[in-house]
Amino acid sequence: MQHLTVLGAGVLGSQIAFHAAYHGKQVVIYDLNDDALAKLDDRWAHLAPMYLRDLPDATEDRLAAAVQRLATTSDLATALKDADLVIEAVPEILEIKREVWAKVGQIAPEQTIFATNSSTLLPSDIAEASGRPEQFLAMHFANDIWRFNTVEIMGHAGTVTQAIDAAVAFSQEIGMIPVRLYKEQPGYILNSLLIPFMTAAAKLYLHSVADIADIDATWRKGTGAPMGPFEIYDLIGMETPYNLNIQSNDPELRAFAQLLKRDFIDQGRLGRAVGRGFYDYD
Question: Could you tell me the domains of the chain?
């Protein structure tokens, strides 16, 4: 599969697109928001030095060639015209995802494989909306995918083996380590472990138990982990935890989401990708 379409020009959608282009794929990024698309040139300029820093095979010429393989559009039919694989990275709201996939299923070529990058939703929650549930699965990438290069691949009961095999092969071709899940699991492997940890940190912050720098330092020093929970929040970006928690049955998590909206999202402190979140980055 040589032609990838990425739905959503946010932090992770742009990383998936750039990384696939870096490994030789032709990529189209679709987003309804023309402003988000216009900012992608700055995003490529932001990612390039990180590749040079972290990947021994990265060169200026290879990065420039990757940018040439990236195209953008706000027209869905144009985005899907040649798609072998579609990876969706739109906001973590079920109704939005179903609406997007219903449109994609009406337009995409017959052979196209459909994948959601949803962090918590199950493929079976979304697959029927696409009209092609047998070709639908989940491919979950972690942030900073050029460094943390695993992709969790999870089908649902109706996903055909050929679609999963194709997703595994594509992942390997773009330098990822594919991890197959044998059954549907909310949160896959990574987030099944990560979300309880992040929830505990959110409640420590909400109740003013300690400063965020001290919470992060305690976790790093006590476990040897490279990042604390609030550094991870900055890596993920504020919008995903806001969307996940604002509809929670837990009133404390709803309060945390409201705090994120008021003190961070509304102030433009969206996380490390924009240089400001819980911490300031230079």
Answer: 3-180 (3.40.50.720), 192-273 (1.10.1040.10)
Q: Fill in the amino acid letter for 209.
A: V
Do you know the residue count of the chain? Answer: 282
Q: How far is Cα 189 from Cα 187, in angstroms, rounded to an integer?
A: 6
CB 44 within 8 A of CB 146: no
State pLDDT tens for residues 144-159: 999 999 999 999 999 9
Kindly report the pTM of this predicted structure.
Answer: 0.83
Structure tokens at 275: 């240089």
* 35-46 tens-digit pLDDT: 999 999 999 999
Give per-residue pLDDT as tens, 90-135: 988 899 999 999 999 999 999 999 999 998 899 999 999 999 999 9
Q: Which two tokens stand for residue 202?
A: 């959110």
The residues pairing with 271 across neighbouring beta strands, listed in sequence order, are 276
Q: What tokens were used for 78?
A: 């144009």
Residue 84, C-beta contacts closer than 8 angstroms, at least 6 positions apart: 1, 2, 3, 4, 111, 112, 113
Going from the C-alpha of 113 to that of each of 21, 164, 271, the distances in angstroms are: 18, 9, 31
Round to whole Å and give the CA distance between 264 and 251. Answer: 19
